[in-house]
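Quick one: structure tokens for this chain, please?
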Amino acid sequence: MKPLNYHGSEIFISLSESIGLSVDLVNFVICQLIALCIAPLMYTFLPPKNQQYIFLREIFGLIIGLTMAYICFGYQMLHLIVLPTICYVTLKTLNPNTIHKAVLLICCVYLSLLHIYRQVYEYGSYTLDITGPVMVMVQKLSALACGLHDGLMADKKQLTDIQKRYKIRKAPTLIQYISYLLTFQTILAGPNAFFEDYIAYLDGTNFPKKLPKEAKSPPSPLKPVLKKVLITFICALVIYFIVPMYPSTTLLDEKFLYETPIYSKIWFIIVITSLTRFKYYFAWTLADAVCNASGFGFTGYNEKGEQEWNLLDNIDILGVEFGVNFRATIDAWNKGTNLWLRYVMYERASPKYNTVMTYTLSAFWHGFYPGYYVTFLTGSLFTNSARMVRRCLWHRFQQPKPVKLAYDFVTCFLTRLCLSYMTFSFIILELMPALRVFWHLMFYLHILAVLGMYVLPLIVSPLKTVKKKSQ
């Protein structure tokens, strides 16, 4: 099955028709599985600690990456060349003191034009297109520009810990620049990798020269890769067999909205949003496995001497599904993007406006479907409300242990409820259908959030107020 306006290869069209999946999804999965098979060969036959192989590692990763992009997106892959070219000229010609702002602006404008074009000509389409890889490239380009600015111009004393870690003291060569942006491990679905981490992977300095005493074994990606492949397989089964049983279009059905009891609507929204997350778990975990299989992602040894391969982890599935509060759940979701937003915007903008500007950048980065903004605005309300509720209640339910467990259980359940309530509009995309669903749910969580933010503090003193009274 070939979707309308899809520009990728049709080489797997017969396989697509036989298994009942659209060819864009088949192309993506096959390319990522091929990458997963190629990655260990790169790790084995082009070892990172051999300095003679660095150039070959760059070229090999680049060629495979461009091939995968062409299979998945056809001539649209030119966007992955045009945008880096514009930004490279910008990096080479502008004052280092302003390059981070200029590159971020160029990236946002370019990506916004792609989002608008897709929204006009392919409205509501879920077909995989070039906007996904460009979104990842925008993260890489803007982070690279910020790193160069920090390394060449910024006062070291004024840099935050993250800025110190990722500052770039020397402008990348052309081949470093191109391979960083287009390497096969991250070109299709990310994750976002910072330039300094990529260079450490290329030259092997991400691995220790000598094993620490607590290390149980030399670095090997086999165990983490097998674990992530297993997670990917489970997610694939859920996507293929269970997700089609709960179509999100049910939320657009007038009969469902008018005749279904409110508790059934709430349960259905929890189900479809939970199942939708499996698509992201699949793509991000598979991409992480590809990186690890090539030797990219090693972070060292923990206190028990066990290897850790979580540098590029984009998702903490258990943290999302069982987080005991809203903040912990959000932090566990799309961790690479959260770090990027913090690095390029939150820590650089004025403290007075950094939150607003960070949300604005996130909105532009995602696109312009109204449903996205309903999710962001609702999420902002829930974040502020959850913060206030926590200040009022958390410290009152920490002892004894059974009380704390009961409190965590209740907050975990409420967090799942809020997560589904705020994200279903991200799935259906449109404004009026989202508002119609909220209407049939009587805006119950919006009302509770407002009460928690403004009424609860009048009844139960927040933590800071309690401290003041006790002094």
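Residues 465-471 have pLDDT under 50 and may be disordered.
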